[in-house]
């Protein structure tokens, strides 16, 4: 019964929605979702609720968890952005070599 009470406290915590959204953002980045990778992580964090004078252990944990997820998402984004930039560079180089997609070459279909 105690486990269910803990789950309920966590799911009702104000930071739960932020943690959940940030976790889903990480999953989207890993799946290659370009739109998710370009979104602003600071928006996911949302407005910070004013910390009570004596925050509970759960308050501190939820804040730390959300911050860790944001840091993870930023770290995941770095290689994804680098790979996308490299792919774009190769694509542009191929276009310049073949003339495909340029004004002087064959039009894109």
UniProtKB/TrEMBL annotation:
GO terms for cellular component: nucleus. One of its GO terms (molecular function) is DNA binding. SMART domains: KNOX2. It comes from the Eukaryota. Residues 47-99 form the KNOX2 domain. InterPro entries: KNOX2, Leaf_patterning_domain. This is KNOX2 domain-containing protein. It comes from Spirodela intermedia (Intermediate duckweed).
